[in-house]
Amino acid sequence: MRRKSGLIIWPVYCDRQARYLEGVLPEFCEYTMTVSDWKNYLEGSSMSSNDFDLQSALPPMAPNDAHMACCLLVDVSSSMGVGNSKTGKTPIDQLNEGLMRFCEQVQQDEQSKKVVDVAIITFNEAPHLVQGWRPVASMEVSTLTASGGTAFVPALQEAITQVQDRMHLYRRTIGEIQYKPWIVMITDGMNEHGPSVDTIAPTIHELDEQGKLRLWVLGVDDYDARDVAKLTHRHLALRDQDFTSFFDWLGKSMRVISKSKPDANLELPPLPQTVYIPDTWI
Question: Which residues in 134-151 are b (16+ Cβ under 10 Å) and which e?
Fold first, then answer.
């Protein structure tokens, strides 16, 4: 690796020959692609799952811009598969619709789709990386299914690790000044497996105080509001399993952030009527 004119030069291996491309590419990305393909990608052209498997991380687009890392941490325990008598749909069905809506909405914004990077982790008794880090422009939503119990702590530990890895990549390849990363946790359950949330809450609070993490939790139906309140004061609850309205708000928030300066004090969009601040707000 070497620097030139303020940019980082990473070796790109294509046609079995090492070439150099101006831009920002993590050293672990040794894929067979032409230099023009990498240039198009860095300028905002998306890649599909035909180019990379969904668990693989993709390098950031727009290497001259600050980036926003948003990790979606989604409860897929069996209770998320229980149908709603009013709508005839399960929470996981409506969650899948909301994720698709979020993806489509943010991809329509030219700035957001290049600087907002998303990873998706599902969890029941254990966390599972469904989609590695990738710009929203290359985000593809898999259909999630529900099974198993609920364990908060291992899932949060995995999400924190993923965020820290992505932020380390930003610092190493783009620069120190980036947007504060978000973990957006969605759960309808209780922490019935594994350690108590008391074991991870201090770590989350310390990272928040240092400006290294923003944890948001959306509670659904009969979730454990008191445990969630121990983790973060960014604690929201959902009415009527209306995930679409929540993901609309999340998409609008990503657009607001991506158009601001990283250190700006932002006013996020107002919450929709079906998303509210519960009584345990602290």
Answer: bbbbbbebeebebebbbb
Burial profile 83-92: b = 16 or more Cβ within 10 angstroms, e = fewer: eeeeeeebbb
| Strand, helix or coil for residue 92 | helix
In angstroms, the first-to-last Cα distance of the chain is 47
4, amino acid identity: K
The H-or-E segment that residue 121 falls in is strand 116-123
Enter the pTM of the model. 0.83
Q: Left if phi > 0, otherwise alpha if psi is -120 to 50, otherwise beta: which for 153?
A: alpha
CA distances from 230 to 1, 143, 167, 170, 200 (A): 44, 31, 25, 30, 10
Q: Cα–chain-centroid distance for residue 91?
A: 20
pLDDT tens-digit readout, 47-99:
544 444 556 788 888 888 999 999 999 999 999 988 765 667 899 999 999 99
Give the Cβ contact number of residue 217 at 10 Å. 24
The predicted-structure confidence for 93-123, as pLDDT tens digits, reads as follows 999 999 999 998 899 888 898 899 999 999 9
Domain segments of the chain: what residues? 2-42, 68-276
| CATH topology assigned to domain 68-276 | Rossmann fold (3.40.50)
Q: Are the beta carbons of 280 and 229 closer than 8 angstroms?
A: yes
**Residue 131: in which H helix or E strand, if any?**
strand 127-135
